Amino acid sequence: MIDERALYSQLSNPATREAAFTKLVREYQEPLYWQIRRMVLVHDDADDVLQNTFIKAWGAIDGFRGESRLQTWLFRIAINESLNHLSRKKQMFSLDQAEGGVADSLASDCYFDGSEAQRQFQAAIATLPEKQRLVFNLKYFDGMKYEDMSDMLGTSIGALKASYHHAVRKISAFFEDND
Questions:
Q1: Which of 18, 22, 47, 138 is 20 to 30 Å from 121 by CA-CA measure?
Q2: CA pair distance 58, 72, nearest whole angstrom
Q3: Cα dist from 72 to 69, 79, 151, whole Å
Q4: 107: confidence class by pLDDT, cuts 50, 70, 90
């Protein structure tokens, strides 16, 4: 695990910024990729969003004041970039096409090696509203605490718990309806 305070200090110094940012990328690229991938689903899209995330982070490094953890800051950028990507994608396709094509998209994705049940699980998650999908992914896949999500998303813990609860109910209903 990386010492975020030391890394923040190195990022604040123009002489050590590039090397520190390289460390930052190495440390967080995999967890960020998987968070993004669970939101956008497609490997190539996830790679693009991840690259945009680090470009935004590099451009905003002077504005980072260390009031939150670097990880929280990066995840917030990644989430915003993921949501922006999904918004642009929805504008290109109708909502029915976007949701209906999730299982087909995953089945044809050479980077997805899951079973049919996993494809259906991802299709169920894709039917959730973006906020519920985000909270579900953070809690279910990352095991993130509600307190950390609250800091990251600027949402109350109660609202996050409600979003997760509703997401679980909708996923269960999806499987009951498609059984």
A1: 47
A2: 15
A3: 5, 10, 8
A4: low
Spacing of C-alpha 27 from chain mean position = 16
DSSP 8-state symbol, 64: -
Tokens of 121: 């699980």
Q: Which of 112, 114, 172, 161 is nearest to 139 (CA)?
A: 161
What is the structure's pLDDT at 95?
A: 45
Quickly count: other Cβ atoms within 10 Å of residue 150's Cβ.
Answer: 15
Orientation angle between helical segments 146-153 and 130-140, nearest 10 degrees = 140
Block residue for tokens 């087909």: 104
Helix (H) and strand (E) counts in the chain: 10, 0
Question: What is the C-alpha separation between 71 and 153, in angstroms, rounded?
Answer: 13
DSSP state of 15: T
Residues 83 and 130: beta-carbon distance below 8 Å: yes
> CB-based contacts of 179: which residues, under 8 Å, 6+ apart?
none
Q: What are the tens digits of pLDDT across the range 86-100?
A: 888 775 554 444 445
pLDDT at 65 over 70: yes
